[in-house]
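re: ur question from yesterday

yeah so i grabbed the chain u mentioned. its 172 aa long if i counted rite. heres the sequnce exactly as i have it in my notes:
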Amino acid sequence: MAGVPAEKDPNARPAVGRSSAVKHSGRPLDRVQRRYAALVALYALALAALVTSPITLVPLWEIVYRRGGFGYRESHELVVDVALNVVAFLPLGFLLHGSYRGDGGASRRVLMLTIATAAAFALAVEATQWALAWRRASALDLVIDVAAAAAGAALQALLRRTRPAAGERRPS
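ran it thru and got these structure tokens back, copy pasting raw so excuse formatting
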């Protein structure tokens, strides 16, 4: 349409460049959110590669326990499995919350979105492991993964509340 500005024209295409970045809640991602989103993508890919590989870390821990003279027991395997799931999904929740944080607020909606995304990823991981002959899926792993991601998101929210944003001064 001639004479109509591009932002008023319903058929206009978005301009190519910085303004056409992926949007959260209708707003373009800022630089920090883009970095968090890139880290989430890399971390998720690395985690997906780890959980689908035929190499598992729990038997490696069995060797460490036996060589260290700790005396390996089945209960140790559960503890190590839980610890590995927490170590794997806590950073994911932290990074996801950083990428969803919007305009700096630690809102309940952002926390719920983070937990829902982490739950979907954990469910996909467990479903994939169920389909692979050399892996084992577990409902306990799913619960621990989501809880660890929620703890990571809560840690990110807590750090954002206690640390002022760039350029802001803390009230004295």
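noticed a couple things. The chain has five helices and two strands. also Residues 37-161 form one domain.
anyway ttyl
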